[in-house]
Each structure stands twice: as structure tokens, then as C-alpha cells.
Amino acid sequence: MSQDDTLAHYARYQSLKLRRHPEGVLELIMGAKDASGKLSTADHRMHRELADIWRDIDTDPLTRVVVIRGEGKGFSGGGDLDLVEDMADSFEVRSRVWREARDLVYNIINCSKPVVSAMHGAAVGAGLVAGLLADISIAARDARIIDGHTRLGVAAGDHAAIVWPLLCGMAKAKYYLLLCETVSGEEAERIGLVSLCVEEPELVERAFEVAQRLARGSQTAIRWTKYALNNWLRQAGPTFDTSLALEFMGFSGPDVREGLSSLRERRAPNFAPDAPF
């Protein structure tokens, strides 16, 4: 049976590249859009596929462990600005993407197969959700982890409220999320935001070493341990749901328009000094 035949389970996915490796390791690649190595961004299709694929991985009989990584200059480039504009303009789009953002977080948490992330370069947006919710997260020393929500003018929804305080503590979570500060891979390991930090040339090899160890272990023991530990995240579900609702409320307000314009024009945002809340 060819690799293409074994990947028939994932035939509908177009924005994500999938490769099977020995011992039940599945490689999930958020690939560069072109030969220049430009960072891939989560457009309409990729955002939907990133949310959906974890259900298919969960039911894939040939997969024991997943390695998710980026290709090109970084791990993930954040939300596509056209998608952000569509969300600001359309209640229908905003409602659909809210559901996808919710499903992305809960589908990763509920996926029975262990997930290993390998983050290099910039790690932003929907890709970062998978990167930090992975069961074993590995970052290159000079990786740049950025939760860009407040820079855009919306609340830090996605994964931030559900996992950052648990990983690195409330004080660090507030510092990095409120100020939209960049966290290097080295600092992320120091504060507990990621599992491991390695030099970039070693990153993918180390991720596969970890994945192979997981694949060779007792699958019931590993999956049940993951399930039990993730109850800490499930308990934070109401906090996550609130943060996501507030984020998407922000997409109907004026600040996201200024945030979007400032990003397109490559300048600092000039947000209004007052807020209704």
C-alpha cells in the first residue's frame, strides 16, 4: 500500500500537508505558501482545516502520535488579514470562525493521540494554538512566540486564557498577553510555557525522537494519562469560552479596524483612549 493510499483518510485537506512515518507517526505540516518561504497564514480554508483535522486524527487507526510543524521561515504566521477583515464585516463569517476557533481548542484537547509540536521562527495565531496545546511542545531557542490579539485590538481568546496561566502562571501570562510581548523559545522554556527548547537545527529531529518514544510506549497508558491530565484544561473551559466570546465581540468594534489598518500599513496602532467596559 502506498503512502498516498494510507493518507486517504485525509483526502479533503488542502492547506495542510501530511506524511506518514514508521511506527505510526503522522507528520502534519503547515507549509509555506510559495518558494520564497513566506510564512503560511490561517486563511478561511486553513483555519477550518486546523479545527477539523484533530477529529480525523483521533479516528485514524494508523496514527499513534502526531508531529506538527511549520515549513519555511517559521511555524505559523497568524491570521490572514483578509480573513480578519471578513470577520469584522460579516456576522455570518464571524459566527463561523468563532465555532472553528472553539473547535480547534477542544478538538486538540480531546484528541486521544499525543501531539508533539516543533516551533521555529514566528509562532503566531491559529498555528500557535496547536503549538502550545500540544502534549509535548518543543521550541527552537530563537523561536518567537507571539499572541497578537491585543495588538490587533481584540481580547486574547483562542487558547490563551485556557492554558497560559496553567503553564507559566498568572503574572507571566498577563505580562505577555496584555502587552503582546514576544517570548523567545529559550524564555518560553524557562517560564514553563513550552516543554523543551533546542537549537533550531536539532528541532525536527528532537521532535521525532520524542514522537517515536511515545509511539513505542503503551498506547492505552499514554492516551489515558493525557485524558486525565487534560481535565485541568477542561475545568478551564468556562474561562476559555468567555475569552473567546469577548474576542469575537471585539471583531464587531472599532479597535479591530484600527489594528487591521495599522498592520496593513506597518505602523503602530492608534487606539481610542476609552472603552465601554
UniProtKB/TrEMBL annotation:
Signal peptide: none
Pfam families registered for this protein in UniProt: ECH_1
Entry-linked InterPro entries: ClpP/crotonase-like_dom_sf, Enoyl-CoA_hyd/isom_CS, Enoyl-CoA_hydra/iso, Enoyl-CoA_hydra_C
Source organism (scientific name): Bordetella trematum
Name recorded for this polypeptide: Enoyl-CoA hydratase
Gene expressing this chain: echA8_2
Keyword field: Lyase
GO molecular function term, any single one: enoyl-CoA hydratase activity
Enzyme class: lyase
CDD domains: crotonase-like (cd06558)
Superkingdom in the source lineage: Bacteria
Gene3D superfamilies found in the cross-reference section: 2-enoyl-CoA Hydratase, Chain A, domain 1, Lyase 2-enoyl-coa Hydratase, Chain A, domain 2
Family per similarity comment: Belongs to the enoyl-CoA hydratase/isomerase family.
Enzyme Commission identifier(s): 4.2.1.17
